[in-house]
Amino acid sequence: MVGEAKFKKYIWVVLSLFVAATAYLGYEVTRVRFDYDFEKFFPDNDEETEFFMNYREKFSSDNDFLLISIESDKGIFQKEFLQRVDRFTKEVEKTSSVTFVNSITNQEEFFMFAGGATDSKPYIDFNDFDAKRDSTRIYKNNELINTIIAKDGKSLCLFVKHEDYISKKKSDALINDLNNLVESHRFDKVRVAGRTIGQKYYIDKMTYEMSLFVGLSAFLIVFFLFIAFKSIWGILIPQIVIVSSMVWVVGGMGIFDEPINIILSILPSIMFVVSMSDVIHLVSRYLDALRTEETVYKAITIAVKEVGMATFLTSLTTAIGFFSLYFVNVQPIKAFGVIMGFGVLIAFVLTFLTLPIMFYLFPGPKHVREEKKDHFWKVYLERGFIWVVRRKKSIFITTGVIIALSIVGLSQIETNNFLMDDLKADEPLKQDFNFLDEHFGGIRPFELAVTLKDTTKSVWDKDALQKIDSVEKYLSSVYGVEIKNSLVTTLKVVNRSAHVGNKEYYTLPTSTKKIRKYRRAVRVVGKGEFVKSIVDSTEHVTRITGSIPDLGNQVISVKNQDLSKFISENKFDQTFDFNVTGTAHLVDKNLRYLSTSLIQGLGVSIFIVALIIGFVYRSGTILLISIVTNLIPLLFIGGVMGFLGVELKTSTSIIFTIAFGIAVDDTIHFLGKFKYELTKGKGKMYALKRSYLTTGKAMILTTLILCSGFMLLIFSSFLGTFYMGLLLCVTLFVALIADLTILPILLMVFYNPKPKLISKK
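The structure corresponding to this sequence follows.
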């Protein structure tokens, strides 16, 4: 045969190129790195992101610090305990990458006297220590409470400022050094929070979980391949595609220097199950053909012909589902969508490039040639088809009720975001963050940029300061900000210092003369470096920086709206531009884009898939039937999220587009077989039954494999990954039920094939 001779001619060429490419990409896998950078979750091409980047250049990063909480069972005002804290503080100050450390043991209260003389006194003087006196003195100074001293007196906090934009290597070294210091001092309890430790914790978790998911997925693949094909051949041959697909995708990331972020940590699980779907359909059809055809080549030809187009379409629609995530205005999600989209297409190409060659070189176990009439799958699928045909009305009614309830649940979905909500409650890091959130004014950075509109004036002007003071009082008393640093707060501290530490003078100076005097004093603190942290060089921009509890995006959004209303009502916006900014604010803002970008991406995905189905099957009726069938599982999972209170956030928002791209696969396989039978001249009911019996097994097997693969994700420590696995599993299971019930009924009732299509054969 000419076709077979040509096929044999190119086998070894293709196989050699495949092995060489896989080996090269396998080397590139070793170059892939992990990345946990909050800033990549900032909205792309956004005015507020650009504003923050420029603002940060004037001052410093708002997120490059660590908070170290140290607890004492006997209370913190014990001399021996404070001496240990002092030694610890000095050792931390000497640690590489640390800029400075604020601790109650190294802080001093400053005093100003008539004539400009100054003096200072440590809050903790070990040569003259008195617990009652010193604690009383400390607690009268508001700026220390919930900042470096807890209100309940059972813990204190070190503010550790390290280098801005610290590298991963230096970050790891810093955390290791701090851990060693903590271990050597043996405090009752130490908790550490901050971007640096969060980065290390997340990357360590991602590395561990990727290894875990790869191992579990490998076990799952072997298990299902054995169940499906019951032979060593059926286990080993398909894994050539499955493993090589993973190597090609991750190796490609190495070539393009694309790191694995928190979302891409689930890549192994998704790639394994997606590539398994293509493999199962092709291997199943090949083995069926091998039982009836005379030669292996004919069996290969029939398998490729019958499932090739349908598998190409399913791969294309799945890839489109992933590619549609490019519309989400967040870089890590864009990267995830693009990489997974190409990964699906790579899996398809490798399936039809290598498996036919493997079939030819290793034809398969002999027992597959045995005829098996009325086997397990045929018996139960026949019963299922009869059940569906007899209960059309009941299925329609049930489907309508489910859709109505799902719409109700969908309307209850809320969007929200917490800094640490991706970690489960029992994770140590989350417990540490929660403690600091409760006892030290919150872990969520708050940053307010204050820009004077009149460039002929200065933020040091009395009138300007009084208006800023009014805003700060609102922030402290109503908004709930624990102000850490600001121009007004600094002047209040200096004013108190000028009155021998009398707390009644912790107020903004009322005279221009005093303000000018205190301005000179502030400018010399830290050799002029301190003032640069609160006022820019033009003296037209100042900052109010602090922290708030991690209350969630919904609450913070309301607080920001109320702040804007307060500023507007008091006409402060006529003098200043007030901009809430900072890392936490920008991460929140990307959540506000999600609803719009999610609908946009899903809409584009549905539109393109509809065009493909309409073009391939040349029927508007089939197009509508397929889209309706696959919108049902999306509505269902939206309803489940609404009723269970699963909030829409960065991690859960991508479920809908992924689910649609994967769920439509079974519909396309069913329609592909249905059309194939019709073109052979078969009647509609016969074509439906044959499609149900032949594709039903592959549909059920691939759904079980996909669901089992996604269910592995529930073992993740990250709640976003947990919900993604659980909800995708539910969605695909509902999609299978819809394809086995409502799809054939819709075809029975609404689709009438043209007689000329049948008469041709």
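Strands lie at 65-71, 98-102, 108-112, 118-122, 155-162, 189-194, 444-452, 482-486, 541-548, 576-581.
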